[in-house]
Amino acid sequence: MRLLMTTDPLLLPVLDSRRFAFLVALLSAICGGCWAGSDSRETGPDPVELAETNAIVDEMIEAYRQARSYRDRGVILWDGEIRGAGTRHQRFRYALEFVRPNRLRLAFEPYGSDATEIYSDGEYLHAAFPQYDNQLLEATAPDTIAVPDLYEDESLAGLFRPTVACRLTSEDPQRFASLPLDLLTGADPLNALREADDAPRRLESRTIGEELCDGVRYRFGDDDVTLWISQQRRLLRRLQVAPSKVDPSASAIERITINFRDAEFDAEIEVGRFQWDRTGAETVVERVVRPTGDLTVGEPGKLVGKPMPNLSFLHFDGSRADIESLRGKFVVIDMWATFCQPCRRGLPSFAALRDQYSDRDDVVFLALNLDDPRVTRSQVMSTLVEWGVDLPLTRVVDADIKGVFEQLEVEAIPVTVIVDPGGIVRYVKVGAHPKTVEQLPEVVEAVLSYPERLAEATIVDGSHAVPLAEAKIAKPSEPNRWTRTRLWSQQSISGAGNLLVVSDAGGSPRVFAIASGPSIVELDAQGQLVTRHTDLVPAEMNLTILRSGRTGEGERLFALSGLGAPQLFVFNDRWEQQFAYPEEPGAGAVYDVAVDRFSAEGSLHIFAGYFGQAGVHVLDAEGKRLWRSRALQSVGDMAVADAQEEVPAQLLCANDTGSLIPLDETGAAAPAWRYENRAIPYIASADFGGAERALCGVTVDLHGGNIAVGLARDGSVAWQYVLPSGQHTSHLDPLTYVSDPTVGGYWVFAATDGSIHWVSADGKTADYFATGRPLRGLAATRLDGKLVVVAAHAGGVTAWALEPKAGE
After folding, report:
1. Do residues 73 and 261 touch, judged by C-beta distance below 8 A?
2. Domain-by-domain residue ranges, the chain?
3. For a FRET experiment, which of 29, 218, 314, 525 has its CA 20 to 30 Å from that of 537?
4. Looking at the DSSP assignment, which residues form a beta bridge with residue 219?
5. 502 pLDDT above the threshold of 50
């Protein structure tokens, strides 16, 4: 294997087509390293030293295997010594973030600002391909990230091809992996490297990034591969690939340095880092469609996916034209010159291909001559005759080959370019390798069919191959960084549903649960049954809504209703009915009820959201309707946002448009808060002791993906946290909160898979555990300085105390 040298006579002395592009794939790297000299293999290794050397690599592999998370970033450096052209250097930016089992972010920027990125938020896998019309691949994320999962789509597999650094880990030559990711997830990382050389050499230790590192060198084909591994953390800090021996006849010698800067195990990585933020400019696809189809035609040039420079040219008859004049047609261009011997191989095939498409008015073939204007027309024609090529002569106006190279961002000829009817470059290939010449007809046909293939793969109106995620109950599990202690379990409650915890001044928390009957069951802080309240609502009501608040005078009120019920009922703390709204059952169907302080005076209000066109009705604490708004329909959740300098207090209403519509205290609507491609059916506000109440919601997409979002007062997303996908099997309030003296407070979520999650008010701290059963209700409070979550399920009601582990 000779990956680092070339003696190819068909490629003029430039290595643009061999750039490592998106191939050194997703390995982090930065500042160039020192190249250690070649070692001698004339004597066998010392058995003791060999065992120690292998132990270093084994310890590194085990460290990656045990890591809960990992991240790094950097720049990959490529150095090439080209005969007659000096030394060339290239840099590629890169970043990797990973959290087990299936959260991943890979970003690699080989071509200017066109970064290729892969995100897995645990529910969906997204991969961005800006060079292919901003295609955004969307697929269901695998349950566990493993390198083979990234090859199911050919374009994803292409991100990892084909460098030495990627080949170190794979037996299948079609499957290449980023080295850190394979160390983290591979079943047998570095297997190809270790099988190629079972007697690696240990090098003298050196300091890299303030860490003392052990060096281990393997012979891999014709190359030396050196791993620099930190002694303390056993992190891979640097990878070097260089020729074992320099071939004097080689036209170029290439070397790669990959430094894993800021590499870190068990990093605390915000969950929002794994969520793709759409710009609206993407073409969302269920499979990536490449202009060249499934053909392996080498790495794309920098110009792919960008507008073609408007070169001017002269036809044989002296008439002038330019690329822009050919808009609306596919243009296939071969750039050549009389001094270019490799051009001699490819030009006859180009002429034959032109003849094949002679009956296509929408396809134009141009053989653009780049000779200096001092080369006469007759000299150029004589060359074509000598080469046996029958093509009309077309010359670039005032040809300056260096200037053309700069415009096309290439450094050699021949160059083949295919431009689509919109003037966008779809294919660039430098050189006249036999395989390139042989595949050109298939490449042309693939590019011609590209618009149709892209249309077939595009996700239209949210309908595509990703199925609606089903809610699957997770097996019981413990938190990662917190400890969980069961406080009590009350199994005497039949039909337990939504929960509510209230803590009045000087009193212990009280737990209220909706139960069969319908009834309300009250428990004390130890889970003991205090009382059961029956006959509160009509027997036929499907009681699902339980809310509470305190008036300005300190009196506690409770509001009860049900999904689709014609009335809501309000009670005092002794469970004496204060009023029903409306007094008699009406035609309206209640969707949600909220109780909160609202208005400049801070008085308590009851808000009723309705299905259909009834909108929102706002009542005072005595049951008098203050106003109603029909500016929105089917209001399923509500929360109050505090006033700011120029913005009044607002009632945020989740509605049938999937947005949040703010209403002021007169019912006037402000512009909706919208979240692209997602609806926000749940919203809550909480007093965490800050200048204003915090806001949090849960967004969903068309496929059942759930994401918790912390919201700023203007509606913008401050942080995100991915929740398990799917839908709850009961009408459950999935979002609550509890104050905390250290971080302000926690948002607490009941997930569709039976797990309970909590996220700090700033979105930076999160953990969860799985209960192993479907949830029917959720509440949270503080008891003896600990966070306590209470959950309803088919077996009753259970409470757990949660606290961070030592050092967390």
Report:
1. yes
2. 22-35+47-199+258-266, 312-457, 482-804
3. 525
4. 224
5. yes
CA distance 270 to 764: 6
At residue 104, the 3 state secondary structure works out as strand
Return d(Cα 251, Cα 412) in angstroms, integer: 14
Q: How confident is the model at residue 733 (pLDDT cuts 50, 70, 90)?
A: very high
For every residue of 614-634, which 3-state class applies, written as one string? HCEEEEECCCCEEEEECCCCC
Instruction: Tell which residue, 320, 300, 296, 319, has the closest CA to residue 417.
Output: 300
> How far, in Å, CA of 258 to CA of 238, rounded?
6
DSSP 740: E
β-sheet bridge partners, residue 605: 596, 620
Q: Give the CA distances from residue 285 to residues 121, 159, 445, 467, in Å, rounded to whole numbers and listed in that order.
A: 18, 17, 21, 14
| DSSP assignment string, 640-686 | EE---SSS--EEEEE-TTSSEEEE-TT-PBPPPB-BTTBEEEEEEEE
* Residue corresponding to tokens 């003896």: 784
DSSP letters along 707-729, please? EEEEE-TTS-EEEEEEE--S--S
Angstrom distance (rounded) from CA 316 to CA 172: 51
Amino acid residing at 163: T
Short-list 688, 709, 691, CA closest to 645: 691
Whole-number Å distance between alpha carbons of 230 and 236: 6
Q: Cis omega before residue 13 (within 30°)?
A: no
Q: Which residue has the tokens 């290729």?
A: 116
Query: For residue range 181-210, what is the model confidence (pLDDT) as tens digits?
Result: 888 988 888 887 888 888 999 999 999 988
Contact status, residue 49 vs residue 192, Cβ threshold 8 Å: no
- Determine the Cα–Cα distance for residues 699 and 713; give it in Å rounded to an integer: 17
CATH number of 312-457: 3.40.30.10
DSSP string, 494-562: TT---EEEE--TTS--EEEEEETTTEEEEE-TTS-EEEEEESSS-TT--EEEEEEEE-TTS-EEEEEEE
* Angstrom distance (rounded) from CA 327 to CA 421: 5
Rounded Cα distance between 666 and 89, Å, is 65
> How are strands ordered across the β-sheet holding 320-322?
320-322, 312-314, 394-396, 363-369, 330-336, 415-419, 425-430
The crossing angle, in degrees rounded to 10, of helices 434-457 and 341-356 is 50
Count other Cβ atoms within 10 Å, centred on residue 226.
22
b/e map 356-388, b = 16+ CB within 10 Å: ebeeeeebebbbbbbbeeebeeeebeebbeebe
Q: Contact 291/427 with Cβ under 8 angstroms?
A: yes
Q: Are 776 and 733 in contact (CB under 8 A)?
A: no
DSSP H or E stretch at residue 452: helix 434-457
The pLDDT mean for the chain works out to: 81
| Structure token digits, residue 210 | 């303030």
Residue 611 has which token pair? 């299905």
> Which of 66-70, 460-464, 531-535, 762-766 shows the lowest mean pLDDT across its residues?
460-464
Cα–Cα distance measured from residue 137 to residue 402, given in angstroms and rounded to the nearest whole number: 37
Tokens linked to 503? 């803590």
Judge whether residue 323 has pLDDT over 60. Answer: yes
My answer on whether omega of the bond before 441 falls inside 30° of 0, hence cis, is no
Its CATH architecture, for the domain 482-804, is 7 Propeller (2.130)
- Asked if residue 431 lies in contact with residue 414, where contact means CB atoms within 8 angstroms, the answer is yes
Considering only CA atoms, give the Rg of the chain: 33
Other residues' Cβ atoms within 10 Å of the Cβ of residue 531: 10
pLDDT of residue 303: 75
Closest CA to 136 of 425, 454, 424, 427: 454
- Other Cβ atoms less than 10 A from the Cβ of 515: the count is 22
